[in-house]
From TrEMBL:
Domain HTH lysR-type: 1-59
Keyword Signal: no
Keyword annotations: Activator, DNA-binding, Transcription, Transcription regulation
Pfam families reported for this sequence: HTH_1 (PF00126), LysR_substrate (PF03466)
Name of protein: LysR substrate binding domain protein
Species: Corynebacterium ammoniagenes DSM 20306
InterPro entries: LysR_HTH_N, LysR_subst-bd, WH-like_DNA-bd_sf, WH_DNA-bd_sf
Entry similarity comment: Belongs to the LysR transcriptional regulatory family.
């Protein structure tokens, strides 16, 4: 079977119709160039060039073959470039899982950042709670998670990309919304409370019980999705502690309010990946996020 080197030799001779000039361009002497053409013609099974002491011409078969030869060489060069781009994390596919809360805040800006920085890649997105994200990372069905880990873990590469506050969601006519005095954490006591699930939304649950005195009998419902929590608040089932980005969920009759005695931006959203990852795009993405963070105080 003929080689790419043989095709390149033939195409160069076909362009110049002169062995000397073709050999010079290929940085070789004429004898090995002639041998490459002879091997190619033997593999093809027909003469491709007519040559004598005065001139070189393409045979009808050669004129047909040179078109396909150029296509093959271009395809081979494109394959090489695509492989290099893939290895550099500039081309390919990345699968990203996000939580419902991160979908309200950081997902859109992060996807825009990725497409601006690495426009040639394809992105698939999936909604999952954090525990499902970690399982998907372990099973390698996703490459990156936008979620929250309470503790560092050597098995994961983690970068904080967004901070926001935990706020109260309550009906607009609720006493805690109507009071003139500042809202404090202790004011939540005694009211029916809708909180995050301790199993499916462990991060938010831990923040809640660490910063609020939550009586077991006070909990009306525990859920994993902020949208459902706001819906229950709108239906009069209680008040809820939700991330500030819940303001993007529109439910008539629900208002959000900040606590005066709670740390601001207590919720940290992270981008999480297995360490190390087999996908070069993951490595490139973390590099870009780190570079962006070092140049400004920007978070997504």
């Amino acid at each position: 079977m003929y080689t790419l080197d043989q095709l390149q030799c033939f195409v160069t001779v076909a362009e110049h119709l002169h062995f000397g000039r073709a050999a010079e361009e290929l940085n070789m002497t004429q004898p090995p160039l002639s041998r490459q053409i002879q091997k190619l013609e033997k593999d093809v099974g027909t003469p491709l060039l007519l040559r004598n002491n005065r001139k070189v011409e393409l045979t009808p078969a050669g004129a047909t073959f040179v078109l396909q030869a150029r296509t093959i060489l271009n395809s081979a060069e494109n394959a090489r470039k695509l492989a290099q781009l893939s290895a550099a994390g500039l081309r390919g596919q990345i699968r990203i899982a996000y939580t419902a809360a991160s979908g309200l805040s950081v997902l859109g800006p992060l996807l825009r950042f990725i497409k601006n920085k690495i426009p040639a890649i394809q992105i698939e997105v999936f909604e999952m709670v954090t525990q499902e994200q970690l399982e998907a990372l372990e099973n390698e069905t996703i490459d990156v998670a936008i979620g929250r880990l309470a503790d560092s873990d050597d098995d994961y590469r983690i970068e904080e990309i967004h901070h926001e506050s935990l706020v109260l969601a309550a009906p607009v006519d609720h006493p805690l919304m109507l009071q003139d005095k500042p809202l404090l954490r202790e004011h939540v006591g005694g009211h029916p409370l809708i909180i995050y699930s301790p199993t499916k939304a462990r991060y938010f649950y831990d923040i809640t019980v660490r910063n609020f005195q939550v009586n077991h009998h006070q909990v009306a419902y525990s859920l994993s999705q902020v949208g459902a929590m706001i819906a229950l608040v709108a239906s009069g089932h209680g008040i809820a502690l939700v991330p500030e980005s819940a303001q993007h969920i529109s439910f008539p009759g629900v208002r959000l309010r900040h606590f005066e005695d709670l740390e601001k931006e207590i919720i940290k959203t992270q981008i999480i990946a297995k360490h190390p990852s087999d996908n070069p795009i993951v490595h490139r993405l973390f590099e870009l996020i780190s570079e962006d963070a070092s140049q400004s105080d920007h978070t997504f």
